[in-house]
Amino acid sequence: MKTKLCLMAGAAIAVAFAGGCKPKGAQTVISGDAASKVYVAPGQHDEFYSIVSGGFNGQMSVVGLPSGRVLKILPVFSVHPENGWGFSEESKPMLNTSHGFIPWDDLHHIAISTTNAEHDARWAFGNANNTPRIARVDLTTFKTVEIIEIPNSGGNHSSPFITENTEYVIAGTRFSVPTGDDKDRDVAIDTYKENFRGTISFISVDKEHGDMDIAFQLEAPPFNFDLARAGKKKSHGWFFFSTYNTEMAHTLLEVNASQKDKDFIMAVNWKKAEEYIAAGKGKKVPVKYAHNKWDESTHTATSSIRTEVLSLNPRDFKDIVYFIPCPKSPHGTDTDPTGEYIIGSGKLAAIIPVFSFTKMIAAIENEDFEGNIDGMPVLKYESVLHGEVEKPGLGPLHTEFDGKGFAYTSMFVSSEIVKWNIETLEVVDRVPTFYSVGHLSIPGGPTGKPHGKYMVAYNKITKDRYLPTGPELAHSAQLYDISGDKMQLLLDFPTIGEPHYAEAFPASLIKDKQVKFYKLEENNHPHVLKGIKDARVERDGNKVHIYLTSIRSNFRPDNIEGIKVGDEVYFHMTNLEQDWDVPHGLAIKGANTAELLVMPGETATLKWTPDRVGIFPFYCTDFCSALHQEMQGYIRISPAGSNTPLKFSTGAAE
Ligand code: K7E
Ligand code: CUA
């Protein structure tokens, strides 16, 4: 029976994918005033920034709302030839891991920093789903400034959700795996139940500077952890994790992990866990993970390998972890703006359960348990339940809030968004999406202060919505007006990569705080040049260092001779500009790397190993002035072992 339900849902998904159940009333025409609601006139700015995950491109994109205009692509876990991220010597360490250099990842979720459960928008966090990592992007420079690897994790999907004052960013493992030393990890897969572990990492965030550190890890049962949300306001101090595969299957999960009627939302009292850690109850376990930081003063990243993590086993303490039964493989779990309600979205469930924090606390006090998992209490469904949303649609995934008492849940299988009243649980409106919606994003939607004006649906299938582009079609977002009683579709816009989640916030929070250029006098890069007079070339064995300046519109030096085949050449380029939006680029013919795009006041290094004799031009890639096309130079490469003297020109006048 249970298997059948799953298969039915599977069939419904297949139908939706095959295009057999196109939502009724396909909106191809929108009314005249709808267009004006997303129109941002030339020269005007959008009202909201939206930071959108890129999915399998490992990037984030910055999108203005309501226009849907893409403002920037931020390389995070992926190399980005556009600006040399992961190609410059300075940025390579950012992509270091315990497995070495990994130039890619799968970024699903964004968390924008909050204070008192409201966006402060100082940082954007993103998760790496594949090789478990969390990144922090500074929203004054839109640059990835820190990446921390998560040990003892098999895949970082339940991440990077944050607590209300950004005390912690969390990372829950999607795939449970055996942990410990080589001997502990080399086990038969069918010993899953005995030997595999789920871990939840609490990563502390420095209040002032944002620096991350793994504060502790909780050892959880070997479930799959899917998503999470922190409590807020009255439920501050708690974290809620959706789990599936509580069957603990290790093969054919499609069927074997859909056996039980209910999986769990795991409620974690992290304040309690913190107390035990402070009391010295954690135990240090050996691990290996990379922690990479960008230094804004040296414009250089460093990567260090850490070898220890503090682990807490909640089985030893009866008051950290509780399980709330939740129907059918919950995907999203979300907490409403008051912090009272916890919503579980069971992908295969016919209802949406809404749990009450107040009732949960009472149930814990009354020991209203229906069993335990390794000694950790399972609460009674009915004692924690506020109520169920009846007949919401098929395939609930994620819920966002408008701050006016309503919740919006995405329905993947029935391709629609359902608006319902959080108190009465009544469905008040539904609109189709085109097609198969994943996450929803309302500016401030996951915080205590949503701005209930717009909602963006991030859809999985586009089919006929855009001009076709070969086998892979554009991914799609749709913007809805949610200011009135009825949701109204305003705009379709294509996206970069495959967005899963996005968070949006008022532009006014950060638009006047942008770094316009880096002050040259504060540049502490070991190879910085403070002026043209310092431009030079130095040989050190077979290494040649070219200390290069760029300013509109020349490089110094620009004619270089005396370099030989087999030399390792390092261009250390300092952009001397002290003005907003004047990067200079650097590219050289035949270099097995990308260009550099160097910001005003910054220094960056391109490594090149010339492989043949000849004259090699280099040039500026960013159209920086009317004489941009004149911004170029030549390097002469002589045969290995030749005696061509080292010679360079910096312009006779200086
Ligand atoms: Cu639903 Cu990875 Cu948040 Cu995609 S996840 S949709
Ligand atoms: Cu500098 Cu173009």
Description:
The structure is a single chain. This protein is mostly beta strands and 654 residues long. The protein has two domains: 45-513, YVTN repeat-like/Quinoprotein amine dehydrogenase (Methylamine Dehydrogenase, Chain H); 520-649, Immunoglobulin-like (Sandwich). 9% of the residues lie in helices and 42% in strands. The protein contains eight helices and 44 strands. The strands form ten sheets. It has a nine-stranded mixed β-sheet, with helices on one face. Strands 40-39-42-43-37-44 form a six-stranded mixed β-sheet, with no helix packed on it. 51% of the residues are buried. The model is unreliable at 1-22 (pLDDT under 50). Residues 550, 553, 584, 620, 622-624, 628, 631 line the site of dinuclear copper ion.
In short:
With 654 residues, this protein is mainly beta. It contains 8 helices and 44 strands. The chain folds into 2 domains: 45-513, 7 Propeller (Methylamine Dehydrogenase, Chain H); 520-649, Cupredoxins -  blue copper proteins (Immunoglobulin-like, Sandwich), CATH 2.60.40.
Percentage of residues assigned to helices: under 10%
Report the end-to-end length measured between terminal Cα atoms.
85 Å
- Report the count of strand segments: 44
Name the CATH superfamily classification of the largest domain. YVTN repeat-like/Quinoprotein amine dehydrogenase
Could you tell me the CATH topology label of the largest domain: Methylamine Dehydrogenase, Chain H
Structural class of the secondary structure composition? mainly beta
Mean pLDDT: 94
CATH architecture of the largest domain: 7 Propeller
Q: What is the name of the CATH class of the largest domain?
A: Mainly Beta
As residue ranges, the low-confidence spans are 1-22
Distinct small molecules bound, one entry per kind: sulfanyl-(tricuprio-$l^{4}-sulfanyl)copper, dinuclear copper ion
Strands across the major sheet, in which order?
Answer: 6-7-8-9-16-17-12-11-10
The domain count comes to 2
User: What percent strand?
Assistant: 35-45%
Helix run count: 8
Radius of gyration, rounded?
27 Å
Largest sheet, in brief, is:
9 strands, mixed
Shape: globular
